[in-house]
Specification:
The protein has 27 residues and is mostly helical. The chain is built from two helices and no strands. The radius of gyration is 9 Å and the shape is flat.
Length: 27
Amino acid sequence: VHELLKLYAEVEVPQDRLLFKIPSTWQ
């Protein structure tokens, strides 16, 4: 998971979107 977060950070993706995507995928 940390690696994915790093990749997203490099792409400069808003954390809000990341937080929304992760819970959606888990649910």
